[in-house]
Amino acid sequence: MRDSEALTLPYCPYLPRVEEPLRASALKEFGSDRGPQFYLRALECAQALWQQGLPAQSLLMMNRAFAADLEDDASALDDWPLPYKGVRWVMESRSENQFIGNPRRHFQHLSTRMVEPRKELRSWRAWGCWWLACQVFPDHPADEKQILEEGIVEPDFEEIESNLVRLGLACEAEEWLSATLPFRE
């Protein structure tokens, strides 16, 4: 194992703990299956990448977890709810020398370029993460060129919440709201 793969950073409390380094390639074993085991492995990959000092890659793995096909009663959600708090925690906890890119722009692009399956729900999940990114990184710019050329209207808080209530899992909107709380207090 290379030093860069060592799990040297403290664990994220909103992601399952791991004992060894994992990369995105750990998801290959699932093929096209996007069920609960895929969800858990994506969260484990996000944790491992975070602990290896790769916050941007950790966020990408949480994006993959949001793409899982889960039912309201999935036991995976009992211990590891949808990772809105994990997304926020990683954005807030990374050090200045760790690459994270522009999460606001990333989530803007993700929400506006989503593909099936569950395109509309996954788009609103990305907008939820975008809202968090805007709060954590208020100085990071939007992709104004895309907004102008494609006529994108950035949603407000209430629109994101109502769409997560309408389309999401039973407790999804509550989970997102709890990730937004310190910004609204």
Describe, in plain words, how this protein is organized in 3D.
- Helix 2 runs antiparallel to helix 4 (84-93) and helix 8 packs antiparallel against helix 9 (172-184).
- The protein is built from nine helices and no strands.
- It has helices at 36-51, 55-66, 76-79, 84-93, 103-112, 119-136, 144-150, 157-167, 172-184.
- The radius of gyration is 16 Å and the shape is globular.
- The chain has one domain.
Tags for this model:
185 residues; mainly alpha; globular
Summed up, the helix count is 9
Distance between the termini: 44 Å
Alpha carbon gyration radius: 16 Å
Task: Give the low-confidence spans.
Answer: none
Order of helical and strand elements: HHHHHHHHH
Query: What is the percent of helical residues?
Result: 40-55%
Provide the structure class.
mainly alpha
Mind sketching the topology for me?
Blueprint: H1 36-51, H2 55-66, H3 76-79, H4 84-93, H5 103-112, H6 119-136, H7 144-150, H8 157-167, H9 172-184
Brief digest:
Helices cover about 55% and strands about 0% of the residues.
